[in-house]
Write a structure and sequence with these properties.
Blueprint: H1 2-23, E1 31-33, E2 39-41, E3 45-55, E4 60-62, E5 75-79, E6 85-90, E7 95-99, E8 102-110, E9 113-122, E10 129-139, E11 141-142, E12 151-161
Parallel strand pairs: 2-12
Antiparallel strand pairs: 1-3, 3-9, 4-8, 4-11, 5-10, 6-9, 7-8, 10-12
């Protein structure tokens, strides 16, 4: 009987701890992606785009160009369909900061909102339609005392390839005047 009661109490503690954990936000989610609207681009054209990531308050992540080679840079990798290209990815400059764990060392980091800019390009041969683009932000988050294992944040957004709504002026055929003769 004691074993049954002990097992039952252990089960209640296990279930109770699971309920508490389910109600709390995921502590491992240190960076989030701000969802974006569908990006529209005409075939043969490029459209600027900005990816906004939010670093949880009290944390920072290494910049794309960390100040020491052993630090893990923040990088956005894309998986692209053949009809869409991402070009000119521009990372913001890092904030040069020192931290209590080593006040003499200056680190290049991001905190708060981080905007990574790029251009979405649809080649002239791109098929009209909507494409789902998958990307991953690889980063390492740290607080003022320690760094956490590197993480990869999946990112998804849509690109619509189609008419931009503006028609290019049509070329007019050249006419020769009946009054002009060429020899």
């Amino acid at each position: 009987m004691k074993k049954t009661i002990t097992a039952f109490l252990g089960l209640l503690l296990f279930i109770g701890s699971g309920l508490v954990a389910a109600q709390q936000p995921d502590p491992a989610q240190r960076v989030t992606f701000e969802p974006m609207s569908t990006i529209h681009v005409a075939p043969g054209k490029a459209t600027p785009v900005q990816f906004i990531f939010r670093v949880k308050p009290g944390l920072h992540i290494n910049s794309n160009k960390p100040s020491a080679p052993e630090l893990i840079p923040t990088v956005l990798h894309f998986s692209l369909p053949g009809d869409v290209v991402i070009g000119r990815v521009v990372y913001p400059p890092g904030q040069i900061t020192s931290f209590p764990f080593d006040p003499t060392q200056k680190l290049s980091v991001y905190s708060g909102d981080v905007a990574i800019k790029a251009r979405v390009v649809a080649p002239g041969s791109a098929a009209i339609g909507t494409y789902t683009i998958h990307a991953n932000l690889r980063y390492q988050a740290c607080d003022n005392n320690a760094c956490y294992p590197p993480k990869t944040l999946p990112v998804t957004f849509n690109v619509s390839v189609g008419s931009s709504g503006h028609r290019a002026p049509r070329a007019r055929p050249t006419r020769t005047s009946p009054h002009i003769h060429s020899n």
